[in-house]
Amino acid sequence: MEKRLFSTLVSLSSLMIPLQSQNPLALDNYPVPVAPINEYVLGDDYTTFQLWAPTADSVKVNLYGEYKDGQQGEWIASELMEKGECGMWTFTANRRLTNAGYTFQTCYQGKWNEETPGIFAKAVGLNGRRAYCLDMQSTDPEGWNTDELDNKPLPFSYNVIYEMHFRDFSADESAGNKYKGKYLALTEETTHNKEGLSTGLAHLRELGVTHIHLLPSFDYASVDESNKQGQYNWGYDPLNYNVPEGSYSTNASDPACRIREFKQMVRHLHQSGFKVVLDVVYNHTFDVGGSNFQLTVPDYFYRHNADGSFANGSGCGNETASERPMMRKFMIESVLYWLKEYHIDGFRFDLMGIHDIETMNAIRRAVDAVKPGVLIYGEGWAAGSPQMPEKLLAMKANVAQINSIAAFGDELRDGLRGPWDNDANGAFVVGIPGHEESIKFGLVGAVPHPDVNLDQVNYSKKPWAAKATQMISYVSCHDDMCLADRLKATKPGASVQELERLAKLAETAVFMGQGIPFIFAGDEILRDKKGVHNSYNSPDSINCIPWGCKTAHKDLFDYVCQLVKIRQQHLAFHLVDAQTINERMHFLPTKMSNLIAYTIEDNNGECMVVVLNANNKPKNVVVPKGEYQVLVKDGKASAHGLSMFKGNRVNVEPQSALVMFSRP
Ligand code: CA
Fold it and tell me: Which of 187, 188, 185, 189 is nearest to 172 (CA)?
């Protein structure tokens, strides 16, 4: 979510619930067990249920029959649990309850709370209200045991992220998918639009991206899973953090179905050479009064204001307290669970600025101990003001203190397209002067660089990345207008050809820098969202990619495909290290607005020249004298080379980029 209030999901009354504990310090002192969180254990001839609730008066587990023939099981029994060490309550049944349903109920000050599936349910039924004792191995698809062997790590600078929502990607008729808006759409090999051009998985293969970033795919609250009509929501409203969302499965009532299909999708993406990034939203829950956290241990998992009301750094009515030992443990173990059980390759932290630095570093250490090369990035901001000193939070300004975790580079994004808080204002791409330094800041990957005039950078007066791979390089994402809409809003009356030229120029800046490039699904074919800025619950008619766009903007698509190839083939875009970038990347003195030119020498002696000309006139630029192979020129791009150029003065066409390199 973007850094603005986003309170539509939450009723204000939930903010007014008073602290049940009168002494907030006491919350920090709750005992926390060392053993991993495990709310059910299936033994050969027993089943143990466990729930952490150190201050509860009583806790019970309600047992239900298994899901069968389309029906949820009947209530069987409710059993009081016994309190043990570290606030753990347990109950052991003397048989193996595979597939049985269960919920927990806690009692505080004589009042029984509503039923909850617990904080760490691994399987749930319809709308996530009841948990199930699944034997997780039974959900593994074919080839799952060897899946990770086919999935080799990739250095961060070679990661190319494609951000997509399941419905956007495959629900429109024009996508040609059988499984519209479902996990399984990403297992369909050959789909195409009406004109026969590839869509879906085959489209991603052509594009050459490496990481498929899925918008929230854990179980979220805002879509009724029993509704067959295909309600839409981005899904930034967490319900059960450790279970896939039901509405993207073919049967949301069957607890095993969503899990099996999610794994099938991951397996298929891995076999197709892609890595999978999960969008995780630990910073807030859908509501607070009825959240699984609150029904388990009231107030513990959230931050509060001095008056006892819930803090609201998320803009959604609450913010979680990552610094509390059990919340930190929960986040670390949740991430590890997705890594191990679902073979996830990366995590995008929503409103990462709400979490504390220590927790993010602990997550990185825990992840590295399990799997190499896992990409972690996040939004280095909050939506409101978190109840924690900013210097302790995983804000963008503090990213250098967080080992190998990246933040979104909004300096580059807004330097290219215009500010996040005013859709009508354009920037560099539409020829408005004054944004050059913000773009340069982003091109070097937000590391210190002598050629960047920090006084003129839009948001940051200090470089914030320790390495360039700590910056995500982008011009648009699901938040705000997509690229086509933003270009239309800031360049009224522009022809289709001009919009394509501007989109090409913007994407060239995204790919020909040192940060990790990121594309919002459909920008590569100039899809629009009919001008809707915050489409989080807009219908399919706004959000779904109309794949006819690929036919209409094939030229742009081909161009972006070549940008991906060029980036992956040249070391110049993989310098990573701040000192190396300082030594090898130099901006040329163009002395002109809307014109940025730079050279990058790689350590094989190749010299890359990049010129971005946002003027509506051709510009002449002096470059180091040499013999160059031209890769990008006047709206055309080819990784094999378009032509040769010899000399030291190049002409760069209006609203276009030039990329060329010379060999030693
Ligand atoms: Ca759900």
Answer: 185
